[in-house]
Design brief:
The chain has 401 residues and is mainly alpha-helical. It has helices at residues 5-21, 37-40, 44-61, 85-101, 109-134, 152-158, 171-177, 179-199, 204-222, 231-234, 240-253, 256-263, 270-299, 332-345, 357-381, 383-391, and strands at residues 66-69, 80-83, 165-166, 169-170, 311-313, 319-321. The chain folds into two domains: 1-26 and 34-266, no CATH class; 268-401, no CATH class. The protein contains 16 helices and six strands.
Length: 401
């Protein structure tokens, strides 16, 4: 996997963009539509991408919002993080509105998708090389437990250092929620503006996709502090896997539905719209409530909102929730995520498989991540985890899986 994924995932991103731009948008078409070299490169693309990253690095350093501490590290210390991602989103939105006032051709992002993706992939490789080499100057306690096997390819892929920083600038935390996630919203908006240029106004399907995904990103940034307790921040090293996911995979594959609608407009019925909004609302409610409950319990188990929930004691001194959302299934946040993912694809209709790529991929990803969580928790909590699994037998979907 450490050898194949850095080769095939970048090719997958480029393949999906090419298929999306083709008239048939057929995932199983063979041979697939191949771009010419002039379609892959545009001298404006690296300027846009590096300028975008620089803008968000500047916003990251602004004294906005509060400073929060992460979980305790192996050496007993806590790192400090600026909680100002939502400010960055709002400033980015204001800049977009300013560009609209000056009639900037934001719809041109549709034509720039391929060269921008190529540049994002190149930046991912270069940053990953830097992270791998610089990790050899990090102290032993700063290394990730799973990223130091001695196999250079695997360690480059998974990440040797847990929290690589340049001064106080945390590279992993910055990439996790800033340029790629907000970039996803900007690309979506560019697709909407391209539809306006082609048809005079945005379609209802396009507005639904933009709204649903903007809500998801805004929620992530509004609750930015919660990311400090996630597996990505707490356990995983920062290597190619996360770098590429943050900077290339998220903005250029999560925006497939909006890009699809530019070339393949859909007409929605009032009943279909209502059902899709309802599905997204249910998914969002489950996702937000369960994540908030977990984060509150991790940070302050005695808080009134979680202190009455039933728990199981473990040998590590921590306790496992067996009631509330986490007594329904072991990963209720994954359930909410999957419901939202389906709602994002439904406005694209049922004539093509491509808009459902995200749902299919995300289901595989969450099942794989759940298996990783299972192994980690079983090793960490032992008998307490087995007791928890008997009490909460379903992993993601109640009575099904």
């Amino acid at each position: 996997g450490a050898v194949c994924i850095p080769i095939f995932l970048p090719l997958t991103v480029l393949f999906l963009i090419c298929v999306n731009r083709s008239p048939d948008a057929a995932l199983l078409q063979w041979p697939p539509p191949l771009p010419s070299l002039d379609q892959l490169w545009n001298p404006t693309a690296p300027l846009l991408l590096l300028g975008w990253i620089a803008l968000h690095a500047f916003l990251y350093l602004l004294p906005l919002g509060k400073i929060s501490e992460g979980l305790v590290l192996r050496d007993g210390t806590r790192l400090k993080y600026p909680i100002n991602g939502f400010h960055s989103l709002c400033i980015s939105g204001a800049l977009l509105m300013l560009l609209l006032m000056f009639k900037a051709p934001l719809g041109h992002l549709f034509e720039m998708m391929l060269p921008l993706a190529v540049c994002a992939i190149a930046v991912s490789f270069m940053l990953s090389v830097y992270l791998y080499l610089s990790s050899f100057w990090a102290p032993p306690h700063a290394l990730a437990l799973g990223g130091n096997t001695g196999n250079p390819l695997y360690d480059y892929f998974i990440g040797r250092e847990l929290n690589p920083r340049i001064g106080h600038f945390d590279l992993k935390y910055f990439c996790e929620l800033r340029p790629g996630l907000i970039g996803w919203v900007v690309i979506n908006f560019g697709m909407l503006m391209q539809e306006v240029e082609l048809r005079g106004s945005p379609s209802l399907a396009m507005m639904l996709v933009n709204s649903f995904q903007l809500l998801y990103v805004a929620d992530a940034l509004w609750n930015e502090e919660a990311v400090l307790t996630t597996m990505d921040i707490v356990h995983d090293g920062f290597g190619f896997m996360l770098v590429f996911g943050d900077l290339a995979w998220v903005p250029f594959t999560y925006s497939l539905q909006a890009a699809f609608l530019v070339g393949h407009p859909q007409t929605l019925s009032p009943m279909g719209v209502a059902a899709t909004i309802t599905l997204n609302g249910i998914g969002y409610y489950i996702f937000r409530k369960s994540n908030s409950q977990k984060n509150q319990f991790r940070r302050s188990p005695t808080h009134p909102s979680v202190s009455r929930l039933e728990t199981i004691a473990t040998a590590t001194g921590k306790r496992l929730l067996v009631s509330g959302w986490w007594g329904l299934v072991r990963h209720p946040n994954y359930l909410g995520d999957l419901l939202m993912a389906l709602a994002w694809s439904l406005p694209c209709g049922f004539s093509h498989l491509l808009p459902y790529f995200y749902v299919i991929y995300f289901t595989v990803l969450l099942i794989h991540r759940e298996a990783r969580d299972e192994r980690h928790c079983r090793a960490k909590y032992g008998l307490a985890w087995e007791t928890y699994c008997r009490r909460v037998p379903y992993r993601i979907i109640p009575y099904i899986y």
